[in-house]
Every structure is written in structure tokens, then in C-alpha cells.
User: Fold this.
Amino acid sequence: QVQLVESGGGLVQAGDSLRLSCAASGRTFNSYAMGWFRQAPGKEREFVAAISWSGGNTGYADSVKGRFTISRDNAKNTVTLQMNSLKPEDTAVYYCARGPMYTYSYNPYNYGDWGQGTQVTVSS
Assistant:
């Protein structure tokens, strides 16, 4: 099992930036893909971004492509989501999750360990 703790959420204005971090401990972190998901009130949890075990491959939801960047530091057991040009529709609780070994997935059912989430609120 991998324990995950997110940080960096907050209240910002449209157009601002935020940087979310996810600290991992436990299992061999650097063997697993990692992902970020989000859930807004009354909506399903949705895929945001993911990164392969080595960091060499990344994937993004169309709604965040070009604005968000996912990265990882396997030496520090951390995954980061840099969010730029934030919009009110980005408002949600953001979750870090441990994915399959090596290759990432867009499907939340392929993620086995989840953090507690961090709130991001973007005002217009």
C-alpha cells in the first residue's frame, strides 16, 4: 500500500496559478504510475492528469491540456500538479492516486490508493 498526502490547495481568482503536491510513502513508489483526479460537488470523480513510473509519459484531460502540468520526483517520492490559468470550472477537491505499475490509466478504477484530497476553489 502507498500512503498519499496532498497539499497546496486554496482559494484563488480566475487566471491565477496553484501548485499541488502529493507526498507518497510505503510501497515502492517509483514502480507505479500516478494520477490526479478531481471531484466537484454533485459530479463524478474525473481524471485530470497522470504520469508513468519514470515520468517519461504523461496524459491530460482535454479540459486541462495546455494549462496543467504533472511531474514527479522519484528521489523525493512526490508528484506535483502545476495548474495555470485557473478557471472557475476547475473548482473541485483534487485527489492524488497510485495507479498501475509502470503505465498510467485514465480510469479511476485502476487506481488503488488515494489521498484525502485538497480543495481548490477558483473565484470568477
